[in-house]
Structures are given as structure tokens and as C-alpha cells.
Amino acid sequence: MVSIPELADDLVQLILLKLSVKLLIRFRSVSKSWKDIISNNAFIYEQHSNNSLALSEEKGDHTQSFLAFHLHLKPDVDKYFSRLSISQTEGMFSSRIDEVFHLPYISCPTSKFFDCPLIYPAGLGIYCLFEFSTNRAALWNPTVKELKELPSSPFKVEDSTEQYRYGFAHVFFKDGVFSYKVGKMKIRWDKGNKVYWLTIDLYSSFEDSWKQLKDCRRLERGGGTCTNQSWIFSSAILNDTFHCLNWLSREDPHIITFDMSSEEFGRFEVPDFLKHDSRYNLGLSLLTEFDENFLSLLLYWENNVEEIYIDVWVMSKYGIATSWTKQSTTGPFINIDSIEMLGMSKRAGVLFLDVDKGLSFCRLGSPKLWHLDYEKFYQIVENRESLVSFNGTSDGLKKL
């Protein structure tokens, strides 16, 4: 009987790199050598990079996957995440919920309506969850169903003038090792000087500890655009840097940058006309990313008959203010009492909006809305499958 020769590991790796994450998870049980290849950090990073490139080149089917956080209207009811798919056939959209996640991390009902977790992409298919009222943060990979709760931060809110308003995280890959940093931003109102002070609590996996950058950024307030909106949704991680839209001053709106490696601040300019055109409401606008390679601004504005429009602007050259380019205008939206932007998917070609009827989406450049007949959504982010595991990094790992 002729035996079939085994394939060389290099050839096996080339074949495995072309497979989906779901298949790779199943193929880890084929043999020990396959499991070793699939579990190797360098392989995991290369597979994710290849998959991201294929997505940016719009290869594959026309079904897009998202993670959505469902916010119940009753404060004592459990909240949960879902994996939502949106597909397009002959110009018509359809949606479905593929999976529901009731995480132990957020399973405790709360008596406060807005005391709910926030989710932010950290890169490489990892998401960071924050519960500011309990001072907790965790990293989550929904694909491999792992959650890693971080050590508690020793820094607390000092008084009523200080409160947490935002969070961010970033996963690095260097020298064959995955590491991460997690930041919690809080602002303090300085009544005497009439400014906000920004403080960041920063966790590093290399040091396995928290540190605090106290009053590290002064934020001026002024002009007529200040609203009660928080910064919950308006940020992007790109080039190992956190970017946050600062619209507190009508005279000086800009993007705050924080280099996650050097831990240094900087700023990028927004399109200059935003300082002068009163039609645009930056408090209702959104900073996000476009095609995972560019910063993008989704700008909310109304005309003189209260029709709502959303302009998409892209910074085509990173950090260069003159490179902001308008991509599209979506609208008009009429007979709508309220509208809030939740995000954009360039690949799906849609904007996600929270309108009177709940979560809706529309095609970029079109005023037609599709309403999703689900419970109240609070956040929605694109889902990226990943093999990155926290296994062995901490006793805080939970297999869900």
C-alpha cells in the first residue's frame, strides 16, 4: 500500500493562510503540527493582514458583519451584544442576527439606564469593553470567545467635576508578540479658568500596570456649538495612534492625537470651512476611519428648511490638512425629529443611523432609509474575525 507523503510545513502554511478564521479554528484539531502552525503568533498576524487586504480590495461576498450593542429601555433588564449581518442583492438590503452574546462581564443588571458598557475596536479583531461606573475594562475576541478582564485601575474619580467620558485601546504586534495598551479618558471642568482638563488612565500589558497622565491636555470651550453630546462614538485608531474629534470650541475645532507607542499628544486640523460655516453641527458629527486606511469625518448639517444631510470627508494624506477631500453627500432626510450617526462601513457602502424608529441604515449618497426591526441599539462596529488569543497571559481570561 502506497502511503501519501505529508506536506511540508511551509506548503501547509501557505494553504492555511488562504482559509477563513472559522475553518482554521476547526482545522486546529486535524493534527498537532497544524495546530502549532495555526496557533503561531506570526501566522495569526499574517492571516489577519491578508484578510484585511482582501476586504479593502472588496474581494469575497457582499455580506458584511457587525457587532451591535443592544440597549434595553428598562434599566433592570440584561443588556447584550449581537453579531449582525447585512447583505445586498440586486440593490436591496437584508439583515439578520447570526449570534447573540450574553457576556458574564456585563450580565449584572443595573439600576441606572445609562450605566452600560461601551465597545471600541482595538485592532486585530480585538474589542475593548468599558464600564466606567464600575471602573472596569476588558478585552474581548468574539471569534474565539475569549474575554480578558484587566486589573482594576487604582485611579478613581476624585470629585463631581471629574467624570469618565471615553475609552480606547490598541493591540500591537512586534517581534512575534502581541501586546496592548488601554486608555480611559476623563475630563474635569475647571470653573475658575473655564476650561476642561483631560486625564488619561493608561494600562500597558508589558508592564502589567496602570499609570495616570494627570491634566495632560487643556481643552478650551467656546462658540455656539457646545452641546450635551459626549465623545462616546467619535474616534479612530490608525497608524498606532488614537484620534479624537474635539469640537468644544467653535473657533478651534480639531482632532486630538495620542501616539500609543510614544504616549505623546499632537493635533490634526479639520477642514478649514468648519470654523466658519454655522450649518455644520460638530457635536452631532463623527470621526471614524475610511477603508481602514484613512481618517474620515461624517459631517452633520441642516439647510434652511431643516432638511438633514451628512457629508463624508476623507483625509487622503495622513496628517495633511489640505488633503481633506469630500467623497459624498447623503440626504436629504426629512420629517425626522432626531438623528444620530453611529458609524459607517465603506465596504458595505452604508451609514448607520439612530433615528426615531431605532437603528436604520442608508446607502452612501442616498436618502432612502432601511429600518432594522430589532431592539434598541446603542453602538455598532464592524466585526473582524481574528485568531488572537489571550490564553496564558493572565488568570483573568474567561472562555465564554
Automatic annotation (TrEMBL):
F-box domain location: 1-48
Pfam families noted in UniProt: F-box (PF00646), FBA_1 (PF07734)
Alphabetical list of SMART domains matching this protein: FBOX
InterPro entries the record matches: F-box-assoc_dom_typ1, F-box-assoc_interact_dom, F-box-like_dom_sf, F-box_dom, SCF_F-box_component
Protein name (record): F-box domain-containing protein
Species name: Kalanchoe fedtschenkoi
